[in-house]
Amino acid sequence: MSVLQGILDTYAQFFDWQMWGEVLTDPVSWGLIGTLIVLEGLLSADNALVLAVMVKHLPPDKRKKALFYGLLGAYIFRFIAIGIGVYLIKFWWVKIIGAGYLAWLSIKYFMDKRKGESDEHADEAEEGIKKGGLLIRMFGTFWGTVASVELMDIAFSVDSVLAAFGVSSEVWILLIGGMLGVLMMRGVAGVFLTLIDRVPELETTAYILILIIAVKMFLTVFHIEMGHITFFIILVLTFGITFIIHFMNKKKEAAKENHS
Asked: Cys-Cys with 125: which of 12, 53, 199, 240 at CB 3.0–4.6 Å?
């Protein structure tokens, strides 16, 4: 009963208007929300492509409807996941599992990159289409597609929700950052895709940040808190180094072209 009460108390905080007012007037909170949005955008830009492939077989008007229903489902899932997660993240073993999973995501990315296995997005799309085929046979073309989009949304959301808990455990920050993040994945995914195309090093930066967030979450198990200012400094330095490396790489490419 205490577990259920703890989860209900967490959801009650969503409707605490005093807390809502404090978040809106706190620059630090907006900084954390901005961090979640940028991280979500970088990680979810390619996910938007996978979803686009999954609805491609539908007529143009029904594609938008399927993605819209998927968007509603993503919001509902985030609301549930954040509400339960705020309660669960208080347990040390949940933090260790979450930090371990985020660290594994980051390490796996660098291992795959080293091996030259960069077809992960194609694999995700293929997996989604296979699920969609099964669901289409069960529920029909349109609703089967909607169900497959929902499942992929949930799969994509797990990584983002865990990363959000690594950044902050404040309920309103998690809720606003998470909800805006979902909207950005659908609304301005193209902007982040263009940005990643122009500065490909940003994709690597996103996974470096995930590793930093994993360390941050793991340290809280031992009651070692990384302050918001320290986290922002690390964030700014990471992006700064990313753009320096990008311009250095561009200079090297230009030099090679001139020699050739």
From this structure: 53
Instruction: State the helix-helix crossing angle for 141-167 and 92-115, rounded to 10 degrees.
Output: 110
Rounded Cα–Cα distance for residues 255 and 24 (Å): 49
Which among 204, 230, 202 has a CA at the least distance from the CA of 216?
230
**Residue 231: other Cβ atoms inside 10 A:** 21
By the 8 A CB rule, do 170 and 26 touch? no
The Cα–Cα gap between 14 and 172 comes to 7
Could you please report the per-residue DSSP string of the chain? -HHHHHHHHHHHHTT-HHHHHHHHT-HHHHHHHHHHHHHHHHHHHHHHHHHHHHTTTS-HHHHHHHHHHHHHHHHHHHHHHHHHHHHHTTSHHHHHHHHHHHHHHHHHHHHHHHHT---HHHHHHHHHHHHHHHHHHHH-HHHHHHHHHHHHHHHHHHHHHHHHHHH---HHHHHHHHHHHHHHHHHSHHHHHHHHHH-THHHHHHHHHHHHHHHHHHHGGGT----HHHHHHHHHHHHHHHHHHHHHHHHHHHHHHHH-
**In angstroms, rounded to a whole number, what is the distance separating the alpha carbons of residues 246 and 58?**
39
Q: Are 55 and 199 in contact (CB under 8 A)?
A: no
Output the pTM of the full model.
Answer: 0.72
Residues written for the chain: 260
Q: Are 100 and 221 in contact (CB under 8 A)?
A: no
Closest of 49, 47, 78 to residue 179, by C-alpha: 78
